[in-house]
Amino acid sequence: MKIHFPPINEQMDLIRRGASEIIPEEELLQKLEISRKESKPLKIKLGCDPSRPDLHIGHAVVLRKLAQFQKLGHQAILIIGDFTGMIGDPSGRNATRPALSLDETRQHGNSYFEQASKILDKENTKIVYNSDWLGKMSFEDVIKLASKYTVARMLERDDFTKRYKAGEPISIHEFLYPLAQAMDSVAIESDVELGGTDQKFNLLVGRDIQREFGMKPQVILTMPLLVGTDGVEKMSKSYNNYIGISEEPNNMYGKTLSIADSLIYTYFELATDVSKERLTEIKTALSDTKTNPRNLKRGLARTLVSLYYNDETAINAEQEFDKVFIKKETPDDIPEFDYSSHPKSINPVDLLILTNLSPSRGEARRLILQGGVSVDGNRIENLNTEININHGTVIKLGKRRFLKLTVN
């Protein structure tokens, strides 16, 4: 079937959106021209890390780029790194990620794809597991592959360089990770590989190894690492500064409003599909001192909830946020805890432990002393306060967590 691709300039406008680097861009133009002339889609590769089964909108940045290639008519290939997950990759870290078993990587990979399907065209995404070819390589094959790259080149990678200069150990098997990732590009004959800026070295190795196997090297496209809600570190569950793509709508909305004003445009550009014209309007509005950034953030929050749920859910999330944080009312739908068999008078530390609102007494004390605990609208600041529990008593923890106590 003949595929009608958009004009090259239209494709490049979308491809360039938010991209950090395209290496080399002239080769991508050539590939797109041949693709359009021969009515043959390019193979766009994205390797997924199965050590992170829960996706957030930081992960979604590169997934959205893959989805854009799909919209242009190209073939999206999602490589589940079930084999490379057993090696562990230190990219962007000063230590290797924990290696996983093959079963664990497969389970995480399935979870990854189900969540990624919120962004990608599921029916037109090809899913492959790199154990299908890496698991079949003999030790002789590995030696031949290793001979195609030097230690000096490997030490050019930033995280390896830092650890080497600091005298920190680097295991030989860590050098095999970028080579294994490169073999993924060889196996599927990828035309373009996508990744975050922290993956640039690995992606470039893929170009070199493809050449060694007599293939036309892939073009690499890197996307920025999205800064998290703290405005400092890249988005990560370990920094607790993330917005999950499967997060409850109310949480997604509320967390979005907490981002720094300086990130508003970046989030619109990288984490949403708003038009080029709308991006221009947002940039203009942000440069106007009369603009209240909070209004733009509310629009961003609605947009994100709509993307992962729908417009109605986004409106409801906004209304619930206004009710709780502006009007200071209690949410309509909050979880309940059956308190019937417990003491009617209790100190706040015991209450948080009993209701599983805190994992430890130390954490409970910290939350109370920092003013993060309220009961029936009254902030609790004294660890020795005796709280009288009634049917319908509401505990508020932090800004967004509520629990209603029921007494039969």
Commentary on this structure:
The protein has 408 residues and is an alpha/beta fold. It folds into 3 domains: 8-223, Rossmann fold; 237-326, Tyrosyl-Transfer RNA Synthetase; 336-406, Structural Genomics Hypothetical 15.5 Kd Protein In mrcA-pckA Intergenic Region, Chain A. 45% of the residues lie in helices and 13% in strands. The protein has helices at 8-16, 25-38, 57-71, 102-116, 131-134, 139-146, 151-154, 158-165, 172-188, 200-212, 249-257, 264-271, 276-287, 293-308, 311-326, 348-354, 361-369; strands at 21-23, 43-48, 75-80, 125-129, 192-196, 219-223, 336-338, 345-346, 373-375, 378-379, 387-388, 394-397, 401-406. Strands 1-6-5-2-3-4 form a 6-stranded mixed sheet, with helices on both faces. Strand 2 (43-48), helix 3 and strand 3 form a beta-alpha-beta unit. Helix 11 (249-257) packs antiparallel against helix 14 (293-308), helix 11 crosses helix 15 and helix 12 (264-271) runs parallel beside helix 14. The longest helix has 17 residues, at 172-188. The chain is globular.
